[in-house]
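May I ask for a single protein's sequence together with how it folds?
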Amino acid sequence: MKRQEQSAADQTGNMSAERRFRLLDPAEMSDAQRTLVAAIQSGPRGKVAGSAANSQTGTVGGPFNVFLRSPELGDYLQKTGSYVRFGCVLGNKLTELAILVTARYWSAQYEWYAHHRLALQAGLDPLIAAAIANGREPAGMDEQETAVYRFSRELHHDKQVSDESFQAIVRMFGEQGVMDLIGVNGYYTVVSMVLNTDRTPIPEGVAPLPVLNGR
């Protein structure tokens, strides 16, 4: 039983394991790393309370700590993330909905922890988030939420998007909306990979995502 419990913990984000990329102190950073930290903290993420980007200690947490290991790539990624989260045509609530779908697909515990709060603050119904966490299509979504949820879920699970789901996003947000929604799912897939590779921990006392289909 103990072995099974350990396996379940690993599958829900390596809850018992330490992060692989230790947090860097500013004094040990290269010039390129310090420049990346400044770019992240001076952007819109730096104004979000509780963000891993706005530490007052001169460093960053979450995926950004891993981005520092390759500062040039990290800068391209953080710029992409800044757009898809704060600038895309979907608006805040629908963007956060797509992020939750991505976090659930990857069982990315830290990503879910960070963006569940932001999704609710943006106005997403907690029951919608709870259904996604448990692997179900939520009931009670409006037309836009349904379109974003189905497009995102198909993209992850089917590796393609049906004509119906494609046309729904085009009708509501235009072709730019399709590209922006792909961008949200794609960027947060990279973030999920980073966080899961790092085993970025969630705070003690925070309930992890449930294990679905062995992960």
